[in-house]
Inverse folding.
């Protein structure tokens, strides 16, 4: 029983004959509408419809949240892969920096030894005859 179906019967005059019945008819229609609106069955149906609407809304929100979670998971996996790649690149860069540092120190050491040898050869003659 819907409200529109119940109120359809109230469109026609309930009492149509006699004097003063028109006022009685309008009052009777108002009372009938009030009774239909206060009907427990109709109230329960309205509550069920309202609850059903909320459930559908909640299900939509859960589905949207699930989609958001899937997107976040994919982005997290992508970040994890990027992080692993960055970590590997950082290790390689560190190894190259250490190797370049070692090469630089070796070249400096060889340069210092050559410089010391040149100074000794200049001070002691190339055959070291002055330094004996």
């Amino acid at each position: 029983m819907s409200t529109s179906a119940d109120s359809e019967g109230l469109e026609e005059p309930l009492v149509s004959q006699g004097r003063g019945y028109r006022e009685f008819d309008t009052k009777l229609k108002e009372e009938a509408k009030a009774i239909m609106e206060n009907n427990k069955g109709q109230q329960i149906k309205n509550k069920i419809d309202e609850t059903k609407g909320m459930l559908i809304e909640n299900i939509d929100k859960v589905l949207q949240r699930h989609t958001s979670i899937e997107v976040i998971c994919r982005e997290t996996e992508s970040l994890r892969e990027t992080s692993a790649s960055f970590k590997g690149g950082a290790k390689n860069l560190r190894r190259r920096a250490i190797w370049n540092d070692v090469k630089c120190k070796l070249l400096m050491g060889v340069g210092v030894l050559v410089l010391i040898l040149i100074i000794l050869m200049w001070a002691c003659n190339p055959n070291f005859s002055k330094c004996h």
